[in-house]
């Protein structure tokens, strides 16, 4: 386990090493990072890792982090996504210095493009995308110059302006940098800087019909904001050369790009485009379906910001891609909820138990601690009555040797209440056990037990009369294979058909005080969070994660 203390001693990750040496060398006195989401979907657990890294660095070192929406593609973007992204970052516990939009730089970027044309470093190409691709060459063969490459500066300026004025249809022309069609880095072979797209943009409306490509927006936005350390994922390594080239040619602020490995989680997909398909095709109920690896899905599932930050800290910053086991994420949320979640008893698969020596029509209050890990959480009252429910699996007609739960002639403790002994049971016509008959042991009540009887099993239970039916949603992995994105055929063929089970559980009355989003440990059953679908007549709970069932293991075998 990594404790707070150990975290302090932890060695620096490679980006921290770079920053510390930059600060030491006096290259900077403070740093600026940015988190640059494209608002084309909800954030997922991979983004969480980038958020923790970027904001974490400026929490640790002097400086700040901007939130920049990388909104240069008008077709896929939406203000709904902008709002969800802001909400998710704040929920994670981070605050940005400036809220910025790449689209706010469209005028400046247009000016940069003119500057490149004037320097003879960009030209308008009338080739179709197929023609451009045909002349691109391969990693081992050089490309060929476009027939439009030698246009004069004046002609290029006029054509580029006419592109902006909307005189040409989509795809008919592009603006390309004039670098080297034989460059060993394919991305340096006259990359496209602008394309024509007659599309409405969520912020600039219909003002523009030419839009900058990623490579002509990202580094320039970094420079405009004087970002010192621009951190992205490994697939951008080959783009770094172009990033540096554009900054050098434009003589703008020299931001630097650093790359780290994309974080992938097993049994799910972390790509907004794929997650969008799941939403649009109805495989899940929405972006915040508790099975989704989105931050909003994890939140609804009952994950806490602390647990997600802890997860990101533990997986650290890597230079090489690898798959991370979702078990680690589950471990982190258990660790956190164990400290915080109030304990409640809920029977998920009820079997009626009649305590024959307990009077009918009365109830007796029992008490149990709300959280044994947190004395300040206090105690709660639980009504004990003649008829109770226990879990079906907690009774066995012919128990195995190490079964310490209820069985004929055997004793167990009811959590917070009495020791009971099983005297008899009732079966229906199909041989199903429908009722167990027990007697309680006088003077054995929890906290006041003077019997000296030592029982090995403790069961959770609820009163038949006072329990409240609640809807319980049990989740399993969304995909049945670890890496659905890298399988043959469509990734959706690997969806787990049994990822959701909805059952009715019977809860002790104290659970009705739950507020939306609140997390509980249902004793012996796991951690559960109250869902937003709850109405006063029907509370709904999502299982966040099961317990590492040490209790069951210790009593079973
Ligand atoms: P997606 O493929 O899901 O759309 P993306 O990289 O296109 O991901 P952006 O909105 O462009 O998503 O990403 C914003 C920031 O988050 C970028 O800096 C990106 O590198 C980072 N990021 C995205 N996915 C991951 C991931 N799986 N692991 C780490 N960082 C990520
Ligand atoms: Mg992207």
Automatic annotation (TrEMBL):
Biological process, per Gene Ontology: glutaminyl-tRNA aminoacylation; glutamyl-tRNA aminoacylation
Domain of life: Bacteria
Motif 'KMSKS' region: chain residues: 269-273
tRNA synthetases class I (E and Q) anti-codon binding domain residues: 458-531
GO cellular component, one term: cytosol
UniProt cross-references to Pfam families, sorted A to Z: tRNA-synt_1c, tRNA-synt_1c_C, tRNA-synt_1c_C2
All residue ranges annotated as the Glutamyl/glutaminyl-tRNA synthetase class Ib anti-codon binding domain in the record: 341-440
Protein name: Glutamine--tRNA ligase
Protein source organism: Dyadobacter helix
Gene that this polypeptide is encoded by: glnS
């Amino acid at each position: 386990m990594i404790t707070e203390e150990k975290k302090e001693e932890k060695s620096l990750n490679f980006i921290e090493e770079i920053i510390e040496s930059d600060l030491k060398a006096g290259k900077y006195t403070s740093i600026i990072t940015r988190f640059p989401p494209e608002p084309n979907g909800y954030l997922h657990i991979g983004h969480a890792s980038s958020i923790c890294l970027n904001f974490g660095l400026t929490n640790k070192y002097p400086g700040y982090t901007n939130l920049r929406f990388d909104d240069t593609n008008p077709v896929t973007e939406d203000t709904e996504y902008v709002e969800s992204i802001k909400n998710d970052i704040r929920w994670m516990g981070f605050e940005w210095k400036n809220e910025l939009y790449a689209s706010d730089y469209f005028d400046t970027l247009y000016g940069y493009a003119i500057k490149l044309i004037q320097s003879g470093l960009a030209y308008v190409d009338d080739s179709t995308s197929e023609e451009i691709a045909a002349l691109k060459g391969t990693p081992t063969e050089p490309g060929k110059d476009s027939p439009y490459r030698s246009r004069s500066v004046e002609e290029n300026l006029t054509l580029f302006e006419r592109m902006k004025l909307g005189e040409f249809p989509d795809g008919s022309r592009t603006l390309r940098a004039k670098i080297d069609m034989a460059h060993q880095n394919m991305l340096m072979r006259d990359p496209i800087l602008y394309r024509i797209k007659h599309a409405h943009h969520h912020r600039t409306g219909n003002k523009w019909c030419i839009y900058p490509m990623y490579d002509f927006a990202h580094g320039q936005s970094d420079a405009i904001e004087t970002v010192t350390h621009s951190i992205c994922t490994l697939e951008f390594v080959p783009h770094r050369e172009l990033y540096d080239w554009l900054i050098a040619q434009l003589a703008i602020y020299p931001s630097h790009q650093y790359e780290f490995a994309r974080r992938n989680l097993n049994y799910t997909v972390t790509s907004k485009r794929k997650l969008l398909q799941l939403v649009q095709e109805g495989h899940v109920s929405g972006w915040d379906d508790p099975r989704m690896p989105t931050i909003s899905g994890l939140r609804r599932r009952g994950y806490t910001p602390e647990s997600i930050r802890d997860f990101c800290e533990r997986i650290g910053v890597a230079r090489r891609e690898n798959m991370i086991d979702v078990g680690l994420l589950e471990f982190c949320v258990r660790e956190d909820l164990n400290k915080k979640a109030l304990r409640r008893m809920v029977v998920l698969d009820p079997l009626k138990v009649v305590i024959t020596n307990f009077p009918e029509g009365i109830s007796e209050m029992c008490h149990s601690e709300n959280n044994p890990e947190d004395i300040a959480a206090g105690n709660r009252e639980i009504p004990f009555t003649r008829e109770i429910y226990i879990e079906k699996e907690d009774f066995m007609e012919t128990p195995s040797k190490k079964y310490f739960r209820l069985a004929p002639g055997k004793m167990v403790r009811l959590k917070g209440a009495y020791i009971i002994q099983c005297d008899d049971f009732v079966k229906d016509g199909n041989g199903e056990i429908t009722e167990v008959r027990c007697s309680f042991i006088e003077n054995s009540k929890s906290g006041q037990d003077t019997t000296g009887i030592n029982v090995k099993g403790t069961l959770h239970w609820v009163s038949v009369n006072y329990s409240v039916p609640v809807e319980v949603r049990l989740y399993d992995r969304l995909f049945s294979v670890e890496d659905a994105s890298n399988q043959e055929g469509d990734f959706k063929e690997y969806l787990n058909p049994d990822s959701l089970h909805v059952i009715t559980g019977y809860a002790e009355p104290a659970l009705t005080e739950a507020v939306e989003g609140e997390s509980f440990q249902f004793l012996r059953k796991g951690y559960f969070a109250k869902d937003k679908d709850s109405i006063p007549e029907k509370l709904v709970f999502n299982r966040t994660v099961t317990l590492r069932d040490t209790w069951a293991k210790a009593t079973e075998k």
